Amino acid sequence: MTTSRTGGQILVDQLLIHGVQQLFCVPGESYLAVLDALHDAHIAVTVCRQEGGAAMMAEAQGKLTGQPGICFVTRGPGATNAAAGIHIAHQDSTALILFVGQVARGAMGREAFQELDYGAVFGTMAKWVVQIDDPARMPELVSRAFHVATSGRPGPVVVALPEDMLVQAATVADALPYQVTETHPGAAQMAELQQRLQAAQQPVAIVGGSRWSAQAVQAFTAFAQAWSIPVYCSFRRQMLFPATHACYGGDLGLGVNPKLLARIKASDLVLVVGGRLSEVPSQGYELFDIPTPAQPLVHVHADADELGKLYRPAQAIHATPQAFAAALNAVRPQANVPWKAHTEAAHAEYLAWSDPAPIRIPGALQMGEVMQHLRAALPADTIFCNGAGNFATWVHRFWPFNSYASQLAPTSGSMGYGLPAAVGAKRLWPQREVVVFAGDGDFLMHGQEFATAVQYGLPVIVVLLDNAMYGTIRMHQEREYPGRISATALKNPDFQAYAQAFGGHGERVTTTEEFAPALARARASGLPSVLHCLIDPEAITPTGTLQGIRKAALAKA
């Protein structure tokens, strides 16, 4: 289109060209011209209650689809509120574009009302920060934002929009739709990988990162089956390999199975696909030696800068997980592999570790039995969402993730993520079942987005575990300063009444027997729901108590 348009209209036209169908926002006067242009556009706009929640919703959609999540916030406090979502997208390698209002160009540099230097504020969290001062450059710079967000290691891009630029008219041609570039491995690299596998006696594979797809997961699963190689998922990337598959060995998260770690340490070849082996999956950077791991490492990553950054690989393959997985079709064993018993034992260890049946915790509500019921009652492709806290262990350890795009959890460890992520997921795929696991402290970080779920008729279910404390911090407190409780206790509202006050469905669950009928009523209600589950404060982990941690710490002292 080459007719004269305002900057706001040009921007919305570019979003449509790049395939944007949904966006999340908290409105602000700094980008009124964009809101006006959206009035006539075929883009679903979700109005949120806080900018952090809006950014997390957009990030969740980016995580599920691989396409950039889109979020609009106003300048100053709106932008700083959104920073948590930017940090999640950065550490989780998720494509996200945050459009931020900015003061008028003539007022810049004077610390005008809500003025921020966005390059300085977001420079260490975003892949690129740009301010568009000329509406005629809108197609060029928005196109670049989409390319930067999705290329190499995906991540967040911040685009600042001076309010006077958005009402200025320009005549400019539209950009072409962005295209994601796949980096493919070479035939020689794949032949070398095959030789390394044939020479191994006890190899393992670790999958993680982003730039996967359902097809890529399927192709990698076929490869693992052909080679009978044990596969481990990186922290909060359990949707990258089916848990019920005979090659699955578990996940490299927090509180990991010690037998899993022992198998990886004893391996003689480690194939890492897509992940960075950051702090949590590397178990505090102690699982592999830096810079040269004891085990030969084959590292596959979409960003060349990640290869050799921390770990010197025996073989570096610069390729996206999707392109690499497709190329694995040509990598097949030439004879029976000698490590089949090793793989069978790894899967058996996972099954024993993830069985909730034997788990018993203090109190009348037994979460092991709750997890058993969820496994029996919910569809296999249910999308589970969570923020940060010990409560997340119940999902990560005991829910069998078997479908791609079924897990939304921040590797950055950001609290308050679960509910906004669930809203983003349900807006994207209303037919999918979406369940949030949250702690009491975690939930109220972005609990106001329950109103957003109600406003848009999104029947997400929140399983809210209430132990009246910031439990993870209390656990560390008892370990480091036993008996000296400080700043971790919480006095909570009645979350059943909270849900009902917003127009949703609420249930109070105090015993194991109450959970199943409460879940059934919540699912039948067709409303956003909160199951307020009161947990004994002593039940700090599936296998540990606060008293036990305190006693162990005092015995050491």
Which helices and strands appear, and what pairs or packs with what?
Blueprint: E1 4-6, H1 7-17, E2 22-25, H2 32-38, E3 44-47, H3 51-65, E4 69-73, H4 77-81, H5 83-92, E5 96-102, H6 118-122, E6 128-131, H7 138-150, E7 156-162, H8 163-167, E8 169-171, H9 187-199, E9 203-207, H10 214-227, E10 231-234, E11 248-252, H11 258-265, E12 269-273, E13 297-301, E14 315-318, H12 321-327, H13 340-353, H14 367-377, E15 383-386, H15 392-398, E16 407-408, H16 418-428, E17 434-439, H17 440-443, H18 450-455, E18 461-466, H19 471-480, H20 495-502, E19 505-509, H21 512-525, E20 529-534, H22 546-556
Parallel strand pairs: 2-3, 2-4, 4-5, 5-7, 6-7, 9-10, 9-12, 10-11, 12-13, 13-14, 15-16, 15-17, 17-18, 18-20, 19-20
Antiparallel strand pairs: 1-8
Helix pairs in contact: 1-2, 1-7, 3-5, 3-16, 10-12, 19-22
Keywords:
alpha/beta, 557 residues, Rossmann fold, six-stranded parallel β-sheet, 38% helix, single chain
Structural notes for this entry:
The longest helix is centred in the N-terminal third of the chain and has 15 residues, at 51-65. The chain is 38% helix and 17% strand. The strands form four sheets. A six-stranded parallel beta sheet has the order 3-2-4-5-7-6. Strands 11-10-9-12-13-14 form a six-stranded parallel beta sheet, sandwiched between helices. The chain has three domains: 4-171, 3-Layer(aba) Sandwich (Rossmann fold), CATH 3.40.50; 187-352, Rossmann fold (3-Layer(aba) Sandwich); 355-556, Rossmann fold, CATH 3.40.50.970. The protein has 557 residues and is α/β, with parallel strands linked by helices.
